């Protein structure tokens, strides 16, 4: 087993765009949740992990005592990992919390910046501001924890081209090791979704979104952050090894309310509501709500969809080794079609999206659906 994901579903504020499994931390049974999480993690098999990722919600919304208890849960079961990441909000990342994280082996921070524009941060419902971003990074510098990713979004309501340029300028100043820069997706059951449906808000057209995406890719490349995945960019040797576990379609454990893992040919999904998760762990000693057994077609499709997200693409050799059938015997027509259209390219053993193909990835992926 390569990786572990741990979900902390608590936030000090719910962002207007977020549809992750989360709740406001006030008046929530946080200690009971952590005790249930301990039981789930303790039930996992012994394994040497290469990556650990603690996300949410917002893990740094926990108190120092709760945070230390969480770190002890993971440390007592698995120790540390070569890449150990914590998600954090800029206004919650104090020197004390960073020191505590580092003491327990955390060596990478995923910092939820989203944008450097204070007005846009308010629109997104974020609790931090521009100064908090710089302050949190100063805290990390003091503790000598310099491996951090800045997480950003584009195509935001009211965003201008200048906002993108300002973000690139701040990246040049801060020099993070890694950048995740995603286009805003309007998800159901979010404040943004309701506002757009009522005509109270709008985002850029697909053409405008494509123009911004192209600027993001080129701007980051010029700053020394080559793209390695559709929305991820990094300095050399600082790619997110944990997220590559997902994109390389490899197995991983997951713990916490609403988390999902992948073991063998099975994807499992945990109960989402916090109190239901706690009760299930206490009463039934299991929080798995659903298990999906993947057949060969399912696994081949996932191999294509996930690996094509990476600039490296799909390995024809690994595909045949994994599924005992050449990739062209299964997907020859789809591959040829999209190579001819300029959406795919082949270099040695790798088939990957072209720049044009990355712009319309979903249109490419649909031709790789096999069906039952």
UniProtKB/TrEMBL annotation:
Pfam families: HemN_C, Radical_SAM
Role description: Probably acts as a heme chaperone, transferring heme to an unknown acceptor. Binds one molecule of heme per monomer, possibly covalently. Binds 1 [4Fe-4S] cluster. The cluster is coordinated with 3 cysteines and an exchangeable S-adenosyl-L-methionine.
Chief place where the protein resides: cytoplasm
Keyword terms of this UniProt record: 4Fe-4S, Chaperone, Cytoplasm, Heme, Iron, Iron-sulfur, Metal-binding, S-adenosyl-L-methionine
Annotated family: Belongs to the anaerobic coproporphyrinogen-III oxidase family. HemW subfamily.
Gene3D superfamilies on file: tm_1862 like domain (3.80.30.20)
Residues annotated as domain Radical SAM core: 1-226
Listed name of the protein: Heme chaperone HemW
Gene Ontology MF term list: 4 iron, 4 sulfur cluster binding; coproporphyrinogen oxidase activity; metal ion binding
Compartment(s) of residence: Cytoplasm
GO terms for biological process, alphabetical: porphyrin-containing compound biosynthetic process
Keyword Membrane found: no
Database matches in SUPFAM superfamilies: Radical SAM enzymes
GO cellular-component term (any): cytoplasm
């Amino acid at each position: 087993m390569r990786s572990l994901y741990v979900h902390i579903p608590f936030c000090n504020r719910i962002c207007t765009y977020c549809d992750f499994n989360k709740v406001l931390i006030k008046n929530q049974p946080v200690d009971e949740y952590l005790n249930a999480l301990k039981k789930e993690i303790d039930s996992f098999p012994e394994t040497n992990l290469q990556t650990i990722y603690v996300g949410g919600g917002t893990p740094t919304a926990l108190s120092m005592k709760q945070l230390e208890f969480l770190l002890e849960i993971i440390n007592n079961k698995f120790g540390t990992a070569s890449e150990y990441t914590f998600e954090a909000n800029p206004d919650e990342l104090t020197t004390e919390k960073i020191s505590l994280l580092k003491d327990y082996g955390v060596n990478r921070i995923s910092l939820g910046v989203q944008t450097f524009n204070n007005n846009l941060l308010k629109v997104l419902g974020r609790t931090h501001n521009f100064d908090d971003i710089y302050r949190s990074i100063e805290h990390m510098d003091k503790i000598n924890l310099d491996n951090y990713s800045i997480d950003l979004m584009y195509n935001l309501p009211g965003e201008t081209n200048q906002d993108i340029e300002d973000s690139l300028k701040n990246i040049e100043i801060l020099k993070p090791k890694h950048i995740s820069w995603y286009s805003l997706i309007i998800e159901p059951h979010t404040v943004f979704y309701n506002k757009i449906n009522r005509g109270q808000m709008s985002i850029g057209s697909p053409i405008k979104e494509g123009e911004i995406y192209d600027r993001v890719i080129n701007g980051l490349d010029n700053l020394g952050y080559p793209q390695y995945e559709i929305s991820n960019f990094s300095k050399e040797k600082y790619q997110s090894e944990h997220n590559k576990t997902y994109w390389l379609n490899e197995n991983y454990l997951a713990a916490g309310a609403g988390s999902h893992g992948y073991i063998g040919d099975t994807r499992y999904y945990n109960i989402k509501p916090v109190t239901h998760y706690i009760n299930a762990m206490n009463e039934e000693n299991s929080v798995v709500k659903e298990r999906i057994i993947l057949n060969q077609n399912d696994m081949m499709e996932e191999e294509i969809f996930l690996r094509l997200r990476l600039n490296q693409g799909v390995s024809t050799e690994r595909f045949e080794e994994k599924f005992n059938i050449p990739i062209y015997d299964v997907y020859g027509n789809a591959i040829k079609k999209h190579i001819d259209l300029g959406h795919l390219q082949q270099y040695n053993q790798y088939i990957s999206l072209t720049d044009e193909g990355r712009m319309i990835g979903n249109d490419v992926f649909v031709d790789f659906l096999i069906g039952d």
